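Worked example

This section walks through a single chain of length 234. The input is the sequence exactly as stored; nothing has been trimmed or padded.
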Amino acid sequence: MSRLDVAVTRLLGMLLLLGACFLGFVALSDEVSEGETQDFDERVLRMLRDPKDPSVARGPWWLAVSAEEVTALGGVTVLFLVTLTVCGFLLLARRYRTLLLVLAATGGGILLNSLLKQLFSRPRPSVVPHLTEVMTHSFPSGHAMLSATVYLTLGGLMAQLAERRRLKAYILVVSLLLPFMVGLTRVYLGVHYPTDVLAGWVAGLAWALLTALVARALHRRSPELRAEARKPVE
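Given that input, the structure is written out below as tokens.
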């Protein structure tokens, strides 16, 4: 298979996955808005708590502590610091156009999540006590969506810098694993319904794919961006 065939196949795969994410989010949000998922959501949250005391999560005491620490990986503060660190690296490496792409992807993801939360305005779960502080609406999960957006975007960027396939695979697996773990902790801590997290994952993946497609198009049209991508890091 030629390089052109590989590129076309990869592009079609990304477009199909993006379309599937969009349709999946629309279908899920419709079910949530109509209350069709409410019984399932509440049942899952109750299953994760002690029947005698809903304020106590199931499992050993350290699991709840670990969940609070892991969930911070999807918080605004940690994601801001991670993005700032990567932007500092790109700035020192003089990859200014790539820096702008990262900022646009991250900032756009934050804006999109805020708009979606305001659009659906789903209240936070009240069936069990929250084990961590929350302030915004519930759907979609900001931690799940923003962690997927940031880690997948940065992971895709780092994968481009790696030459060996095993390194690329490792980077992408970690980029997928982090949002997955963050989303699970949001349900375990009782601050999100499972469908909130699922919607966050889907929306975050869709946004990361969209920004990757935009970056791909810009690379094809901008000789400066292509030259910057090929330039070795010094």
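What to look for: DSSP finds nine helices and two strands in the chain.
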